[in-house]
Specification:
The chain is mostly helical. It has helices spanning about 5-35, 40-60, 65-85, 110-130, 135-155, 160-175, 180-200, 205-215, 225-235, 260-270, 270-295, 300-320, 340-360, 370-379; strands spanning about 90-95, 95-105, 105-110. It contains 14 helices and three strands. The protein has a three-stranded antiparallel beta sheet with strand order 1-2-3. The longest helix has about 30 residues, at about 5-35.
Amino acid sequence: MWKTPTVLLIIVLVLLSFGIVMLASTSGIKALALYDDPHYFVKRQIAWLILALVTGGVVGRIDYHRWRHLAIPLLIFTVTLLTLVLVPGIGVKIGGSRRWLHLSHFSFQPSELGKFSLILVLAWWMAREQRHIRESLRGALVPVILMGLILGPVFIEPDFGTTFLSAVVGMTILFLGGTRILYLGIISGVGLTGFMVALMNNEVRLQRILAFRDPEKYAQTFAYQLNKSIDAFLAGGGTGVGLGESMQKHFYLPEAHTDFIFAIIGEELGIMATLGVVLLFAGFLFCGLRISWRAPDMFGRLLAFGVTMMITLQAMYNIAVVTGCMPTKGLPLPFISFGGSSLVMSLLGVGVLVNIAQHTGEEFKDDDTRIVRDRLHKF
């Protein structure tokens, strides 16, 4: 019988391989027009993939307990990078948002590091303060402050999608860590109210919501990508039009190789291929939760759960956006979409999961892992 980390790695490798194939099929026309090289995006993705595989391999060999000592230093480093992104002349402004730092010939998105840093610092704190986790200060206020240090700069960029996704994952970590339901309710209520107020006062994001509700009215503006994405799925039908035969990638669907690559999968390979991708992510979720469940201490369980949920929730959100179930938001499909920052951090997370899995079977190192087990069971 195959072990959970083996199955997890097979799933990830299949997704990565499929992503390279689809990127080669999807990006050639755009790469030729922009860079006079049809393989431009594929070459860059393979370069990032090599770095990501090395990162994941190294992290997989590092005892996950050592991450405890890196929680605060990584938090400080992450907040520094997120702050630098907001500085004109340092952070790169694309599409009205400052999210990128240029590093020689590559660009890096600090918010991707922020996702992992958020998970790590919350897992560290909740494990460290488990004896006092029911208190309002240590169990609710301090974790919220830690979340705010990372999510604040991301929100200001602005990147509402990453902020919302990270906040949801952060709240589930607090829930599993033992924070009182009352405090979680208050935090969620205040946070959602503030988020909605900011959303309603941001013209671009508000228009996206209106376009989601009435795509025909905004067919040539804010609902353009959504309509073209739906057209791709309709054209693909059950079996697809054939690999490399997509029409929407001919500059009809602007982000065909990044945020909307799932639509091209549906167009070229049909509904069976898209269902296959969904099942692979479901398998990833199952493996990640199993690793979390069997981790020998609270820190390991919360860390594994956070990494698993961050990747799978992002995949779910991307698929929901592309299929018209959620308002348009630029979040890549993990392991498949073009994007180096996301790829490196996703495989770093996989490395952490694999290492935690290697400690399965060790004697429980703290009594309060039962809190996580009980709430994870309910979850």
